[in-house]
Design goal:
about 500 residues; alpha/beta; Metallo-beta-lactamase, Chain A; Rossmann fold; seven-stranded mixed sheet; about 35% helix; about 20% strand; globular
């Protein structure tokens, strides 16, 4: 019935093309062209609404004959100008959405969901069960920060008689979002909308992260779209390796580290230990800007290994992030999805938790406890958010430590272009915080081996698993150079990959 209706809707266009003085040959050519256009209109369509120019703002619209699905709804992160784009209206009709599918909880994949709900969406949002628990703490934290920033901005605006601003979304919008969330187990194929099924496979990136498989019928044939999500680094601690997928019609492939390989983990751990030993000798503090979910737990585990081996001489490790603390406790509750080796090591500790695996770990939940850390002049390891130094408590610790020659800053994750963390990696000698310029005299270390993302070799190896049916590959979630390098590397393997533009569409 839908096919007939679509054809009738298109008939006036076709008749318009055929009207007028046409030869028989011209008429047949127009008829053939019109029929082809009709066929394309009735095919499933994929539109790229985010993460095409960089690594953040993930959003893709999948339109089948019977359903419209939004895959991801992420925040754009980076410079202030880039982040202002989050305020813009969505580029698609929210009223036509049937479901939202989420790969994992990181805000660049999920952080715009409350705005989607505030703007009128009221359908289901699907994700894995651990993702739901992490999403709750991450979105509530994001809403709190956005409301606080709006309040600070409005104080200035009221004094200068300017129009006040509203936060991108509120805590109430987050509560409304969470009420729509529905969990799905890994490896379970579930219908989420008319004629569309989803299956989650372990991506090994953070707790609950998933490779998304979307199945639907097209012309009597089942089609399969695979979204890699963020694929994990197989050398990372705690999580399992990304699951292998062997067939698809379309593959959306992340390319964050598409232009490089990570340093081998054994070398990374050796340097990590060396930095800690050096800081201990010269009595300096170590600052680790870390993403609250994933990287923080990896770092705590690695510090725990050093402690258990008698190699950690620092007197205290501070986890200064309420969200990271909550996420660490969620990791403890979901030990059944951790890899066997590291889970067994944790179980040797008193309660099998990361906290007891590293007994010198202190949780700083309150602002007062956080401020007290800044009175520690030496001998502390401070893990605080945010991972790109563009917010959170790490900025206060940088202000108190980055000007000291004895201090060390260890960068353990990807730093997007335009972020303060990227400026440190690129050698900035001045760091601006709260309207004040602070000299950068601390030693800055970049340990890419701790990345939670697959590197180029790991990406290529994962793609090689598609040996039953070769998919059409589209590269997303990467800066231009990373996508170009991965595209060339894939071509050497005989696999062609396209780099889509913002708001571009392709048929499936």
């Amino acid at each position: 019935m839908l096919l007939l209706t679509s054809g009738l809707n298109y008939l006036p266009k076709l008749l318009g093309l055929l009207s007028g003085n046409r030869t028989k040959k011209q008429g047949l050519a127009i008829l053939y062209s019109g029929t082809a256009m009709l066929a394309r209109e009735m095919m499933a369509k994929l539109t790229f609404y985010g993460a095409t120019k960089g690594v953040t703002g993930s959003a893709y619209l999948v339109q089948t004959k019977r359903a419209n699905l939004l895959l991801e709804c992420g925040l754009v992160q980076g410079s202030r100008k880039e982040e202002e784009t989050n305020e813009r209206p969505f580029s698609f009709d929210i009223g036509k959405l049937d479901a939202v599918v989420l790969s994992h909880a990181h805000l660049d994949h999920s952080g715009r969901l409350p705005k989607l709900i505030a703007d009128g969406y009221s359908g289901p949002i699907f994700m894995t069960y651990p993702t739901y628990e992490l999403l709750e703490i991450m979105l509530k934290d994001a809403a709190f920060l956005k409301q606080r920033d709006a309040e600070w901005e409005n104080k200035h605006r009221r004094r200068t008689d300017q129009t006040e601003v509203k936060p991108l979304y509120t805590l109430q919008d987050v509560e409304s979002t969470l009420a729509l969330c529905k969990g799905i187990d890994y490896d379970y194929r579930r219908e989420i909308s008319d004629g569309v099924e989803v299956r989650y496979r372990d991506a090994g990136h953070i707790l609950g992260s998933a490779i998304v498989e979307i199945f639907f019928k097209e012309g009597g044939t089942e089609k399969k779209l695979v979204f890699s999500g963020d694929l994990g680094n197989s050398c990372a601690a705690l999580l399992r390796d990304p699951e292998t997928i062997d067939e698809a019609d379309v593959l959306l492939l992340e390319s964050t580290y598409g232009d490089r390989d990570h340093r081998p983990m054994n070398e990374t751990l050796e340097e990590f230990e060396s930095i800690i030993a050096q800081a201990s000798r010269n009595e300096g503090n170590i600052l680790i800007p870390a993403f609250a979910v994933g990287r923080t737990q990896e770092i705590i585990f690695r510090l725990g290994e050093l402690y258990q081996e008698g190699k950690l001489r620092h007197q205290a490790v501070y986890l200064d992030s309420p969200m990271a603390i909550a996420a660490t406790e969620i990791y403890h509750r979901y030990q059944d999805v951790l890899n066997r080796k590291d889970s067994a090591l944790l179980r040797q500790a008193e309660s099998g938790s990361l906290h007891t695996f590293l007994p010198v770990l202190h949780y700083s939940r309150t602002t007062k406890e956080s401020m007290a850390i800044n009175r520690v002049k030496a001998g502390a390891i401070i893990i605080a958010g945010s991972g790109m130094c563009n917010g959170g408590r790490i900025r206060h610790h940088l202000k108190h430590n980055v000007w000291r020659k004895t201090s060390h800053v260890i960068i353990v994750g990807f730093q997007a272009s335009g972020t303060p963390g990227r400026s440190l990696v690129d050698g900035a000698r001045i760091f601006r915080m709260q309207g004040e310029d602070v000299a950068v005299k601390a030693q800055i270390h970049t340990l890419g081996g701790f990345s939670a993302h697959a590197d180029q070799s790991q990406l290529l190896e994962w793609v090689s698993g598609f040996n039953k049916r070769q998919p059409k590959i589209y590269l997303i979630h990467g800066e231009r150079g990373a996508k170009s390098a991965l595209q060339a590397a894939l071509l050497q393997q005989g696999r062609k990959a396209d780099v889509p533009g913002q708001c571009s569409s392709v048929t499936i």
